[in-house]
Please model this.
Amino acid sequence: MALKFGISIGNVRQPIVELAPRIERLGFDSLWTGEHLVWRTPTSDAMLVITAAAAVTRRIRVGTAILLLPLKHPTLVAKAVTTIDHLSGGRFNFGIGVGGENPREFEAVGVPVKERGPRANESLEIMKRLWTEDHVTFQGRFFRLADVTLEPRPVQKPHPPVLVAGRRKALPRVARYADGWMPYMYSPEMYREDWKRIEELAGQGGRDPARIERTLFIFTTIDSSYESAMRLAAAALGQRYAQDFSEMVKKYAVFGTPQQCAERLDQYRQAGAEHFILSCSGPPEKATLYPEIIAREIVPLLRRSR
Model:
């Protein structure tokens, strides 16, 4: 399978109506954005941002990386996903996660943080039915529906691809519900090992793991040397997650010169990754330049490595 490359707009400071066409012109396969309700830095609603991106592009796939599903009602999310799928002409990828890093955002909507996993699972069951069935009735632990039919149906059949993010606790959710796996904060070794586990779990559930796309969300920092890029990456991620990343960055991020970034990404390719979602991490004035560098210097090196 041909490698795919996407950009998560993260720290790229440019209006989305200018940034999305720019990313598309550079030849990327996908454009993504994420969200938090309450976070350490300002964040926007992912579905609204990606709708704007869809409106000013024509080819590139757009997606959420990720939407915090436990914070929202699944019927409303299913309607929003369908709407974006229509507005984009069937180019929407629906990436979800359960969050939990900041319990305050769960408190803000009255959702116990300990319920986030089961709520996400129940929501995925409901949404898949709403996208494909009429007269949906559901009696669950968290949600109840009686004879609900949502129209129109999504453009993509049976529904837009559902990508499940997270770390090792999310693997059963991936195996059961996902059209794509989107881990983050992963080493190549973890990626290879956990993909084998997904294959086992999917097989046990009667699913073909070959139908699950192997994506990777990876923080990426580019500079003139390995050492300077490592400092920039550690500072950016340390601010994002409010902890010391000076050592963890070596395991969970891609950084260095373009050549060094390509070599590190190739380790993930060898571990099984097929679709790279690169989150441009670093000072905003530098991160804004990363998409061009990735497209012109890093992607060609990886494509030649296959």
Observations:
- The domain at 161-306 is CATH 3.20.20.30 (TIM Barrel).
- The longest helix spans residues 116-132.
